[in-house]
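User: My instructor asked us to take a sequence, write out its structure as tokens, and then describe one feature of it. I'm not sure where to start. Here is the sequence I was given:
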Amino acid sequence: RVESGIVKVGEEIEIVGIRPTTKTTCTGVEMFRKLLDQGQAGDNVGVLLRGTKREDVERGQVLAHPGSITPH
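Assistant: Let's start with the prediction itself. The structure tokens for your sequence are:
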């Protein structure tokens, strides 16, 4: 779910929390099996990430703009 802001295709993203922070790129945004150019706050979307497997991301982690949040 997009909590705030917008996630766009081609945008660089950080996966933050639980495991060490990793950088990747958004290669696609899906909502109800339809490909979109972006997802906005309030949308329940699936985000396709370059070079990232499903096992690399777990519940509780956050996708964020690089440098915008830090885990502690």
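For the description part of your assignment, you could build on this observation: The mean pLDDT is 93. Try explaining in your own words what that tells you about the chain.
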